[in-house]
């Protein structure tokens, strides 16, 4: 370029001045990891139950998760956030969790959905509180995205309950174990 100026596509970047970069980095990194993991869970469920009567329902939820992941991929570029180094682990762990829960049958897959989506919507609520305390106007776009995704995760949670998640074998043990795993994944993905 003339005059030694560098070319940069501004449309994919946001103004980073005045934002709490460590907070935003942590939020976007963990949400990207969560949506990545959710995609892998649904991929695992579809590998086992894709041709069953619950296949179209799982596919519908997976399609929304794909949209969520796409948005967080865009936000990572816009806010210049690096992904968690744990993505290769979440790739495998998510698929194994999805396929493993689906091997328990439709109710097992739905129990997994209820556990994960409840954890994620609670986590999104915590992030909403954090951003509201920081500056709701400054983070208006990010708040809108997180609120929309939280509402869609709640829908997935409710779909799981409507499809007999609570009748899965050892439901309360399964739900507790999955939610503990989600808490660990959130903790690690925010930081690493």
UniProtKB/TrEMBL annotation:
UniProt cross-references to PANTHER family, sorted A to Z: 5-DEMETHOXYUBIQUINONE HYDROXYLASE, MITOCHONDRIAL, COENZYME Q10 BIOSYNTHESIS PROTEIN 7
Species the sequence originates in: Phoenicopterus ruber ruber
GO biological process: determination of adult lifespan; regulation of gene expression; regulation of reactive oxygen species metabolic process; ubiquinone biosynthetic process
HAMAP family: COQ7 (MF_01658)
Family matches, as SUPFAM superfamilies: Ferritin-like
Annotated GO MF terms: 3-demethoxyubiquinol 3-hydroxylase activity; metal ion binding
Protein name (database record): Ubiquinone biosynthesis protein COQ7
Pfam family, one: COQ7
GO cellular component, one term: nucleus
